[in-house]
Write a structure and sequence with these properties.
The chain has 649 residues and is of the alpha+beta class. A hairpin with a 5-residue loop joins strand 1 and strand 2. Helix 3 packs across helix 23 and helix 18 packs antiparallel against helix 20. The chain is elongated. The chain starts with a strand and ends with a strand. Belongs to the PA-PLA1 family. This is DDHD domain containing 2.
Length: 649
């Protein structure tokens, strides 16, 4: 470019050549509706690269193989649960209004037009050009860093000053917009956990469903695996833990049962929102104790877990890890008290087996003569009630084993039907056992695997057992096919109850184990509170011990070196106290968790400690977001074992 200089000759000014054009890098997004509005979320870099390289592939598995993307349709489908399919885009250009928080990707057609215009502007070095979009809006490419999108105004009717809006900002490529790309998940799955929800369709205060809450729990576990576990600690390479939601509420309140229609007909019109909330949540407790709907709930939980397990194995054919189950509130009760774990497997029992073979397999051959004397064969045994066996003089323990074997054979004959046929309501009766527990007598379906661990979050099982007459759980009792059981609760959870006091002798007062904070220490306000309590307790204990030492010694002893004797007595009492504290820390709590502690209590936050009543409801719904809970689950899975300290009561 030249200009006239002072001497009359042209002065040549050299401009920098235009930057070479480089094609934009595409990234794939999916549309996740939020409160009726579009909310575009990016795939991880790994998933986006898979989609970009798919070419001839019709379906691409994404997000830990929990979703399938049909590339040609540009749709994303959930694999394990019912969810409306969502739109998928191959994105490169984004726009945002002045009052909007996040950028929205343009459609692929518009992005292609913008990219062509950008390429021409860069190649020719010609900016401030206008491009009219098919929507009627106008795009102005001022320079590579400033590009705007203006709304469509009719030339004959220009907008008034109040109607004018700010132009939208345009950005090219994800590197130029503030977006958080999620971390990719390892392909290898080490462990599978099924999570069963409690009452109602909402699982937390944000009214999210079981799918969203389990997604958050899974994300927390992925972050904790990266920060707390390394291959050196577990002596092998680490993948991830897959958590899958189990939804039974939808079936219970679906069209197959018609229960919602029946309840709606008798519901009063006043305080409609409160009554609707009650119908969706509290009534689930009554449904479980109903002779009509209890079978539906239990069948749904078992069949859904078995369905998910089979589907997971199809998606992960090389999976060789173990499986665990977790239940929140009533969900834990469904897993535990419904005997879905307690009666998973037992001695083989079939109507084709001989009576002698069945009794021998259970170690009960000593009772063979009693049954043969009454001409009881296998067919007759299948018809015997507990009262019949009791009349024959068979003790309680062997009776229970025989009845369990008979029930297991009956359940196995119905398992195929349960898995293939949608659950329907059936009439069931109540049965009272010798221990005094009144529960609904139904056919309990079987799971197709043996769980490694069973995690209960905010569980009311202790209360249910107590009000039904069971005062104590025998220390030798354990789940036949599940070696570990953890009762995890928040200290302010109004629904949660303890289990250990039902196993330990009444004279033992053992507080629950305080779960460690995921950042490696006890919360400061708890340390301060515990320190003040310990100082006061130690001071009073020392004064009490000294007083007892002097008061118990005879007067001559005090006169003849009584101080020495008192000091010796004091040291003996202190040593005894220390030994008692050590014994309390190492207490063995039956066989339900292999002799290990069962009750684990979370640490409340500082704000929660100000008013425990205010945060009571929140504390019952906190487990899905609790990193401390996720860390305890991971420690059990990866073999480090849960740790903690005795909580102060």
């Amino acid at each position: 470019k030249c200009s006239e200089g002072g001497g009359g000759g042209p002065d040549w000014i050299m401009l920098d050549p235009p930057e070479p054009y480089e094609p934009v890098q595409h990234h794939w997004f999916y549309n996740q509706k939020s409160e009726g509005r579009d909310c575009w979320q990016p795939f991880s870099f790994e998933d986006s690269h898979r989609l970009e390289d798919s070419e001839g592939e019709v379906v691409v598995a994404t997000e830990g193989r929990r979703y399938d993307v049909c590339v040609k349709e540009r749709r994303r489908y959930a694999v394990y649960w019912d969810q409306t399919s969502s739109e998928v885009r191959r994105c490169s250009w984004f726009h945002k209004g002045s009052k909007e928080i996040s950028y929205t990707p343009h459609t692929e057609d518009i992005s292609s037009l913008l990219e062509d215009a950008y390429m021409i502007a860069v190649t020719l070095g010609e900016w401030k050009s206008n491009l009219e979009l098919p929507t009627g809006e106008t795009v102005i490419l001022h320079n590579p860093k400033l590009m705007t999108q203006h709304p469509n105004y009719f030339k004959d009717f220009p907008p008034s000053p109040g109607e004018r809006t700010q132009p939208r900002t345009l950005k090219r490529g994800i590197e130029n917009i503030p977006v958080e790309i999620p971390e990719g998940e390892p392909d290898m799955v080490d462990h599978l956990v099924f999570m069963v929800h409690g009452i109602g369709p909402a699982c937390d205060l944000r009214l999210r469903g079981i799918v969203q809450c389990v997604n958050e729990f899974r994300s927390a576990s992925l972050a904790l695996i990266s920060s707390h576990f390394s291959p050196a600690e577990v002596h092998r390479s680490i993948g991830r833990v897959e958590f899958l939601p189990v939804n039974w509420h939808k079936v219970l309140h679906g069209e197959s049962t018609g229960v919602d229609r029946d309840i709606e007909r008798i519901t009063l019109p006043s305080i409609s929102r409160l009554r609707q909330f009650s119908n969706d949540t509290v009534l689930d407790l009554f449904f479980y104790n109903s002779p009509t709907y209890c079978q539906t709930i239990v069948d749904t939980v078992a069949s859904e877990i078995n369905r998910l397990h089979s589907l997971f194995l199809l998606r992960h054919p090389n999976f060789s890890g173990a499986v665990s189950v977790a239940g929140h509130s009533l969900g834990q009760y469904l897993l535990d008290y419904s005997s879905l774990i307690g009666t998973l497997n037992g001695p083989p029992c079939s109507s084709s087996d001989s009576l002698e073979e069945v009794l021998t397999s259970m170690g009960l051959e000593e009772h063979l003569r009693k049954l043969q004397k009454e001409q009881v064969d296998m067919e007759a045994l299948m018809l015997c009630s507990e009262g019949d066996l009791k009349e024959l003089g068979i003790p309680l323990g062997p009776r229970k084993k025989i009845l369990h074997c008979v029930k297991k054979w009956k359940n196995s004959s119905k398992l195929q039907t349960i898995q293939e046929t949608p659950p329907t309501t059936s009439a069931v009766d109540y049965q009272h056992f010798d221990v005094g527990i009144g529960q609904v007598s139904i056919d309990y379906p079987q799971l197709v695997f043996h769980p490694q661990a069973f995690f209960a979050f905010g569980s009311p099982i202790g209360m249910f057992l107590t009000v039904r007459g069971l005062k104590r759980i025998h220390p030798n009792y354990s789940f036949p096919t599940c070696r570990s059981f953890y009762n995890i609760f928040h200290p302010f959870d109004p629904v949660a109850y303890r289990i250990e006091p039902m196993i330990l002798s009444p004279d033992m007062d053992v507080p629950p184990m305080l779960m460690p904070h995921h950042k490696g220490r006890k919360r400061m306000h708890l340390e301060l509170k515990e320190g003040l309590t310990r100082v006061g307790s130690d001071l009073l204990g020392s004064l009490r011990t000294v007083w007892q030492s002097f008061s118990q010694l005879p007067v001559p002893a005090l006169a003849e070196g009584g101080a020495t004797a008192a000091a010796a007595h004091l040291n003996e009492d202190m040593e005894t106290s220390v030994m008692e504290n050590e014994d309390r820390k190492e207490v063995t709590v039956g066989k339900l968790n292999g002799g290990r502690r069962i009750d684990y209590v979370l640490q409340e936050t500082p704000i929660e400690s100000f008013n425990e009543y205010l945060f009571a409801i929140q504390s019952h719904l906190c487990y899905w977001e609790s990193e401390d809970t996720a860390l305890l689950v991971l420690k059990e899975i990866y073999g480090n074992g849960p740790s903690g300290t005795s909580a102060q009561q």
